[in-house]
Amino acid sequence: xxVTLTINGEARTLEADPxxxxxxxxxxxxxxxxxxxxxxxxxxxxxxxxxxxxxxxxCQTMVGDVxxxxxxxxxxxxxxxxxxxxxxxxxxxVPQCGYCQSGQIMAATALLTDTPKPSDEDIDAAxxxxxxxxxxxxxxxxxxxxxxxxxxx
Amino acid sequence: xxxxxxxPMEVPQPSRRTFLKLSAGTAGGLMLAVNLPRTVEAAxxxxxxxxxxxVHIRPDNTVAxxxxxxxxxxxxxxxxxxxxxxxxxxxWEQVTIEFAPSDPKVYANAAFGMQGTGGSTAMASSFMQxxxxxxxxxxxxxxxxxxxxxxxxxxxxxxxxxxxxxSGKSATLGELAGLAASEAVPExxxxxxxxxxxxxxxxFPRVDVKNKTVGAPNSFTIDFQxxxxxxxxxxxxxxxGGKLKSFDAAEAKKVPGVVDVLQIPNGVAVLARSTWPAIKxxxxxxxxxxxxxxxxxxxGEMVADLxxxxxxPGVKVREDGDAEAALAAxxxxxxxxxxxxxxxxxxxxxxxxxxxxxxxxxEFWFGSQIQTIxxxxxxxxxxxxxxxxxxxxLLAGGSFGRxxxxxxxxxxxxxxxxxxxxxxxLEPAPVKILWTREDDMTGGYxxxxxxxxxxxxxxxxxxxxAFSYNIAAKSIMKGTAFEAFMMTGGVDHTMTEGVHDTxxxxxxxxxxxxxQETKVPVLWWRSVGHTHTAYVMETMIDRLAxxxxxxxxxxxLELIKDDPRKVGVLKLAxxxxxxxxxxxEGRFRGIAAHxxxxxxxxxxxxxxxxxxxxxxxxxxxxxxxxxxPINPDNIRAQVEGGIGFxxxxxxxNQVTLADGVVEETNFDTYVPLRMSDMPEVxxxxxxxxxxxxxxxxxxxxxxxxxVANAIAAAKGExxxxxxxxxxxxx
Lengths: 153, 730
What we know:
The complex is a heterodimer. Chain A is of the alpha+beta class. Chain A has helices at residues 22-29, 80-91, 101-114, 120-127, 137-152; strands at residues 2-7, 10-15, 48-51, 54-57, 70-72. Chain A folds into two domains: 2-72, Roll (Ubiquitin-like (UB roll)); 80-152, Orthogonal Bundle (DNA polymerase, domain 1). Helices cover 38% and strands 15% of the residues of chain A. In chain B, α3 runs parallel beside α5 (122-149), α11 (371-382) packs parallel to α12 (409-423) and α15 packs parallel to α19. In chain B, a hairpin with a 5-residue loop joins β23 (599-609) and β24 (615-625). Chain B folds into three domains: 16-211, Aldehyde Oxidoreductase, domain 4, CATH 3.30.365; 221-292 and 351-434, Aldehyde oxidase/xanthine dehydrogenase, molybdopterin binding domain (Aldehyde Oxidoreductase, domain 4), CATH 3.30.365; 299-343 and 446-727, Aldehyde oxidase/xanthine dehydrogenase, molybdopterin binding domain (Aldehyde Oxidoreductase, domain 4). In chain B, the strands form seven sheets. In chain B, strands 10-11-8-18-15-16-17 form a seven-stranded mixed β-sheet, sandwiched between helices. Chain B is α+β, with helices and mostly antiparallel strands. The chains are: A alpha+beta, B alpha+beta. At the A-B interface, α1, α2, α3, α4 and α5 of A face α8 and α18 of B.
């Protein structure tokens, strides 16, 4: 059936089962592949998008439940926190394989929007759901602190 | 990953001569007829291009480095770019990376004679080749400028992509590309001396970092899209070695979007117009499996079997003398038993592969790690000439060894699906097989489980008299395409690497290996045999130091006097970690050092205990000697990541079987290292002019024993059965 979603500020109508995951609607129906499939059970964070600014796992969020909300994906993030995060990620060469990094950046951006000067404990709490098998965690932590500094500057 | 030894297959090597020959001849700027990626062909049509197998300079002033190696996170694409950019004197910003087509005549890995990446060989084996490619391109650019400006070539300089002459004339590399394409390829391109390097040895941003921070389209195999693409999932036997008996697809076929359900040799494939129906419909299949030849044991039985094997003689890997007599004559014998579990690679991008077969030509898109095997298996399964196969290597979302198989099973599976589609009368269509996380996690090809039995003889002064080591595991090589040229004398050296070649000066080392038979497929897992041998060796060394009443670092230094590079990393790591000063209250330290893939890494782990008594790894200080450091920041990144990857595994990862069925199915049960587990990591690099060696893997082996030694410093005992969760310390 036909579903209308607001993705990155644009109304998008697509044919999808309301009980199908937002992740696959984004990737397969809208060809927005920046949001990644990692586990399908909300255990890795690779599929993180923002729902009205909150980080959520799109693999466990059904299309029918997000009508009338604002969905933001890696393709559409902007603003002070997102720019600072992406700049810091580039500056510190955070990604290795890069597959999880869309989700990491979405989670970090949500964290910094909410908590502009996070402590290490804040970072642990906000980022523990985002797995990186290359284990770029040390750089992600540094990059979040760097992004916080950039936002302050 | 691949650990190819010193016996490359008899396949033509990509010598400098080969690349010169392939580069020779010219017409309209296109210098050779290699099977270049489509993007390259398209650009070449425009004219004015400079094309060599390893570098392509375009009129738009981009310098595309053609990587024969897959980029799976290890940074090789940036490393190869560094080599070409340096010798060519390109500006870093104009360098881009493209992946080479599958063609071992041009793109074989010099370390193993076929096209492929592994064994941390990429930079070591390409160091001269890619520099020569850059130097040859620069010489041709300069020659072209000299003719164009009518000045001596010796007066022309190139810097940051700008070619210039004292007269004021200047041009970009792109502007001269077309002219340079008609220049003769120099017989002996002159390489820079290390003091002339502008990029090598310095840290420049990865060439792929920007795309990886914006979710760029068409990055990974899973992102691959093309008109009419079908997505398939495959129901495979839950038990290794099980076979399909019967299936009912009636309910699955009712799911909207499902195109067909087809039997293939290893299971049942659900074909759909998009991913979700393919996943959903597969759950509705009713399948009966024939387990008569399947592995039906549980992990406990398999470990017991391995332990029993280590009590008996096996294949002799090393025999310095009569160890039994020496042990019998010793004042006492220290004995230890270790066991290690199956480990999954768990790359963030699960296995996936796309192909199109029109009945004549077959084109593939995926993270191909051993292109030559993938290519040949594709041709064999499809029954077509290898010339009719084209492989496009894409970025891989991690591998850790998983994408390098001796049997190219993902290729064989999708090729058999293409045949099944043809036989079912379906119109030829591009198809992508996606493995879900459960498929990837339960699909085998694990780091083998292993048992180790060590007996060390000590004399009255606690000097080692004999070192006896029996290991049992399933061989990664035996029974595969690699057996014939990688096993010698019936020995699988990937099982014992790190011990049979140790530089610890023990008077007598004897080593046996025994092979477990099981249908569970096994594979190299980032640092292969070193994942377990380093743990055993480095914890045994600490234990022997304790027996001898010696300090662990001093004991090591005594034993490795003839291994100066290992001494170097040990001393550097110890110094930076403050080894000589006691740790703060409640903190404990352990040290370990290991050589793998030509590189030396020492790590000092500092731990504390949480209120509930579990271990927290606070800080790791590493020192690495990998020869000439090509990109120091990438070396640090790989060691940081290797420490995290290895740490998660030793702390809590294992794949277990219950009656042959894998129990850990996803990241909720096979819990990877997470942000809050990651220690602070410091990486120090030993300055060196030695030839560059591997860095993708060598950071992994020392972390387990460094942590185990720190725990022993606190508790007096070493964890000998992994993961550490079993000992209750995690």
